[in-house]
């Protein structure tokens, strides 16, 4: 059996399975009568299943692009196109089901509220106001904690940068000291070379005088013997 065809068949089975799961979840959302927390849970589950379905379709499309057989490639690409259309239809149905269910839950909540005695309505409104304030306070606290963490991170980075600058400054200071030491060594070497140069000139002058004296002596001796 062709391994490529086997893998493609498995992915197509996964696509069909995930598509059925998405359709079933859309029906659950359509039938959801509350509360909103349950609708939120169904939404989160639906987004996860849709993402999985989309990933499977993309895997099948990747296999289709690398299929060497043109007939099989055309068949796979046609299947991918069909699955993408089904996915788009499911996305539209998913959004529509959410809107309809949210409106129905809100309408039911309003009807229940208005059917209550006035004192219960006031108590419920106060409870909701307190809950809203608590949620707002919690969000503000989380935001402040996030800002505090960011400031702490920034402070730590600044401290690390300062340590790096101090270390670099110490290295620069050490390099400066080494350069000054090398400069002194070079100056001393220059003085020694100058001293040796002057001594060499003196030695050459003495050697020239000695040679001249030697020539004078030779000339004097020759003159005495010849004349």
Automatic annotation (TrEMBL):
Presence of the UniProt keyword Transferase in the record: no
GO terms for MF: SNAP receptor activity
Key words of the record: Coiled coil, Endoplasmic reticulum, ER-Golgi transport, Membrane, Transmembrane, Transmembrane helix, Transport
Pfam families in UniProt: Sec20
GO biological process: retrograde vesicle-mediated transport, Golgi to endoplasmic reticulum
Membrane-protein topology: Single-pass type IV membrane protein
Annotated compartments: Endoplasmic reticulum membrane
Name this protein carries in UniProt: Vesicle transport protein SEC20
Domain Sec20 C-terminal: 136-226
Membrane-spanning residues: 205-222
Similarity comment: Belongs to the SEC20 family.
Gene Ontology CC terms, in alphabetical order: endoplasmic reticulum membrane; SNARE complex
Record keyword Amino-acid biosynthesis present: no
InterPro entries assigned: Sec20, Sec20_C
